Amino acid sequence: MALSAKHLPLARCSILLVENETVVAQSVADCLQDAGAFVLTAGRINDALSMVESSRLSAAVLDLEFGDDDTTIVCRHLTERGVPFLFYSGYDHAYVCDKWPGATVVIKPAGEQVLIAALSELIGR
């Protein structure tokens, strides 16, 4: 039995997903869409920055490390706009929080329900 839109935890949410690993990005995007979210996926920092500038976002899910770079600049732009975000990262919580104190962190690989619950809490659902 399919859930109606009002029973989906992320219904009517617009979520930015910043992930450079295609397989991970597709898996997370599918998970978030199944929870009712509209997902914008960025595989490059510049694309993520453009989406932050041009979109009305409910929240964002970011990988911390991005090849030779990291997503700090994206985090700053999200913070300036009041958009909550969490890190979905293979790095441990302490490492992520050293780079971004107080961040919400979901460690890869996490089950779909763990990610959805953390994101729902982050946006106050």
SSE blueprint and pairings:
Blueprint: E1 14-18, H1 22-34, E2 38-42, H2 45-54, E3 59-62, E4 65-66, E5 69-70, H3 72-80, E6 85-89, H4 93-99, E7 104-107, H5 112-122
Parallel strand pairs: 1-2, 1-3, 3-6, 6-7
Antiparallel strand pairs: 4-5
Give a verbal description of the structure.
By secondary structure, the chain is an alpha/beta fold. The protein has one domain (11-122): Rossmann fold (3-Layer(aba) Sandwich), CATH 3.40.50. 40% of the residues lie in helices and 22% in strands. It is built from 5 helices and 7 strands. The chain has helices at residues 22-34, 45-54, 72-80, 93-99, 112-122; strands spanning 14-18, 38-42, 59-62, 65-66, 69-70, 85-89, 104-107. Strands 2-1-3-6-7 form a 5-stranded parallel beta sheet, with helices on both faces. It has a two-stranded antiparallel ribbon with strand order 4-5. A hairpin with a 2-residue loop joins strand 4 and strand 5.
